Amino acid sequence: MERVLAFGCHPDDIEFMAAGTLALLAERGYEIHLATMAGGEVGSPTLNSQQIRAQRLKEAERSARILRGYYHFAGGFDLELEYNNHYRKIAVRVIREVNPQIVLTCPPMDYLVDHEITSQLVRNAAFIASVPLFDCGVSITPMGKIPYLYYWNAIEGKDIFGRPLPLQFGVDISSMMITKEKMLRCHESQAEWLKYITKWDAYTEKMKQASKADGQRIGRQYGECFIQHLGSGHPQDNILKTILGDLVVETNASSASCGI
Questions:
Q1: How many CB atoms sit inside 10 A of residue 92's CB?
Q2: Is 158 among the domain residues?
Q3: pLDDT higher than 90, residue 53
Q4: Are 9 and 36 in contact, with CB atoms under 8 Å apart?
Q5: In a domain, 260, yes or no
Q6: pTM of the predicted model, to two decimals?
Q7: Mapped to the 3 state alphabet, what secondary structure does 115-174 carry?
Q8: Which residues contact 100 (CB under 8 A, 6 or more apart)?
């Protein structure tokens, strides 16, 4: 069975941005793996870091189980992520453990530096996980090939300068919105936190609004939009289009200018 790995920064990032696509892939027989670089250790106005991390990791595990999938915690600490050798090793460790055909992750430009660092770490790990001489600190067989790599959309659909990302295509997730919402609702601790930090009264409604906006980009009710990493060594064909067929639609923003 082929595997897909969605590797985000915090618990709930994946559910906001890519859970519908994961649900469609699960429906087509893919084994689903969710991973986060950090444990959400600062994501509470009332609990201490150890308490909120324990809660958020359990929430992430519950979400993954909805797709009969698996959750992996890389071991990083919220708001302290760095592009350094320690984090490079733990990112490679996760990717080698999963051995995915497809990797989804944060975009290179997003509202929070932790998301951008995660994007860099996952991008690097997707390539070097197949390099036999790279030591990730534990004995895991290197991957046999470089996986497909995709970036999901930025939070609120814009970079730090307010510009849209150069999204190439979207996935019609209209049939999976109930599943996506169910997965996001597993992260119940974030209702209080997001209301506190972003003034979002209903985080599931924010997710629906974002999914509607991505749906409008492809002429569908709900969508999730992506950019494919096409750097040297990575597969150049769009395997999501091959798997999902007409549910994958090119966006009108493919030629948009954005410095990512």
A1: 29
A2: yes
A3: yes
A4: yes
A5: no
A6: 0.94
A7: HHHHHHHHHHHHHHCCCCCCCCCCCCCCCCCCCEEEEECCHHHCCCCCCCCCCCEEEECH
A8: 2, 3, 4, 5, 33, 147
Write out pLDDT tens, residues 124-166.
999 999 999 999 999 999 999 999 999 999 999 999 999 999 9
Phi, psi of 170 (to 5 degrees): -130, 155
Residue 240 backbone dihedrals phi, psi, to 5 degrees = -65, -35
Please state, in angstroms and rounded to a whole number, the distance separating the CA atoms of residues 66 and 121: 27
Three-state DSSP state, 63? helix
Task: In the chain, count H helices and then E strands.
Answer: 9, 8
Token duo for residue 14: 């994946």
The parent domain of residue 28 ranges over: 3-250
Q: Residue 168 in contact with residue 12, Cβ under 8 Å?
A: no
Please tell me what DSSP assigns to residue 186: T
Number of separate domains in the chain:
1
**What tokens appear for 50 in the block?**
């150890």
What are phi and psi for residue 11, nearest 5 degrees? Answer: -55, 130
CA distances from residue 15 to 67, 115, 140, 177, 251 in whole angstroms, order as listed: 12, 14, 28, 11, 22
Going by their DSSP bridges, the two strands 223-228 and 148-152 should be labelled as antiparallel
Does the residue 256 lie in any domain? no
> Does any domain span residue 255?
no
Supply the CATH number for residue 166's domain: 3.40.50.10320
